[in-house]
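Review the following:
>
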Amino acid sequence: RCCVHLVMAIMKKKQNIGIIGLGNPLRHDDGIGLALLDFIQRHKKEFEGEITLVDGGAGGMNLLHQLARFNVVLLIDAVDFKGKPGDTRLFTTEQIQSEKTPITLSTHDSDFLNVISLSRELHELPKTLVLFGIQPYDLSYGAGLSDLLASALNSMGLKLKKEIQHLIEQSGTL
């Protein structure tokens, strides 16, 4: 009986930091979250802390289970925040859910907000949840990023690396 509780406690233990890329690579710039996740995968050895990379696909309710795995989550996704294509911006959970922050989460807006609400209701929302948003240019159907985003991929990846390193440093104090 004691062992059952120990096994359950171990199974429930959350991993520290999850980096989740979101998007649909068949809708041009909506695939930017997955492209940047791939960039981070290639540079993963450069991070001092342990991070787990997750391909979240187009999100949906499957994201609920991914969020529950971690104490800290950084989501990467195309976000229309009325910036210039390729601009990046970090959003907190409160900003994502606020109607005062005019953002559109690419092709999975309402699903994403529902997942956050449900995760909070189930007491599974990570302690820290931030969204690294990238302003898309083209969300029409078709494979591959627009030339504008493809040419800025390295620059966006370097900004993302800084944000991840900042989260790693902060997570030691969370």
In short: Residues 147-171 form the longest helix (25 residues). Confidence is low (pLDDT under 50) at residues 4-12.
